[in-house]
Design a protein that fits this description.
It is built from two helices and five strands. By secondary structure, it is of the alpha+beta class. The protein has one domain: Alpha-Beta Plaits, CATH 3.30.70.100. The protein is globular and about 35 Å long.
Length: 91
Amino acid sequence: MQQKTVSIRVCGDVKYVGFRRIIWRNAKKQKLRGYVENIPSSNCVEIVVQGSRDSIQSFLDWIKSLQIFTIENYSIEEIEEEKIYRDFEIR
């Protein structure tokens, strides 16, 4: 199974409202690895996930469907990451 790494930048009302914890919980549930962290001086959060294409696509679909947060926009970028993450963490 081929693994890939994706960086997702989510902007809106997503800081200080439990967003990172919900992202962490769902990423762990889907057995993804990586991290989620606030981006300083912005209203954005960065999520880096590593896993199978299907798991990442399912995770992205789930983020797009979130209605309890005000997501103004998001961007997705596949990245060439040599680092292998062992778990998913909140930074």
